Amino acid sequence: MKPWDGIISEEEQRAYRAAGFxxxxxxxxxxxxxxxxxQYRTVGTEPRPFWEAIKEFPTACGQVGWDxxxxxxxxxxxxxARGWPVIYPYxxxxxxxxxxxxxEKVPALMTVGGRxxxxxAEVAPADNDILLPKKHPSAFFGTPLASYLVDLGVDTLVVTxxxxxGCVRGTVVDGFAYNWRVLLPHDAVYDRSATSxxxxxxxxxxxxxxxxxxxxxxALLKAL
Length: 224
Fold this sequence. Notes:
By secondary structure, the chain is α/β, with parallel strands linked by helices. It has one domain (33-222): Isochorismatase-like (Rossmann fold, 3-Layer(aba) Sandwich), CATH 3.40.50.850. It contains nine helices and seven strands; from the N terminus they run H-E-H-H-H-E-H-E-H-E-H-E-E-H-E-H. Helix 4 (63-82) runs parallel beside helix 9 (214-222) and helix 7 (164-177) packs parallel to helix 8. The protein is globular.
């Protein structure tokens, strides 16, 4: 069962099939793992239901984030074992000059404190990983990500993290536009809205990415 089944109607899915969308594009031979915004501000410092988690950080997604962290850890272990590159696009603490449209649209993002910007320990960076601070949803916008990927000879992006409808989607679309293959494990990304999560996964599956679960993604990676 796909995450969008029961949300995207069978008739709508048939319409995409009829138009030729949703074909498999496969993966390449040189993957990189992107772990996007997996910081305590997006999950909370411990697993809690959503309405409890946002008492600590209003931007937290709660238990769904921690469920995804478990799967990200599985992917990270495979990348560590194979010596493949791991990249952490992340939001750094906001300064007064960062306000722009973001402060108007989502003011809670301007007031994250405490451990909010720390990486979640279960999937935290190691010494040789690439840290990529960003100011906008896409990990490509205003960053040297494309340059790093070219230098590493990467042909496939395995995209994980938060949020499915925001920074994950922005990165997937831009990566696709740059002609990288994109593998998107749907249970290794998360969002505060289950509906938005499902709808965006469906749309990315149809147009931009190879969408599977973590077990399926690991099977593809282990075959390389």
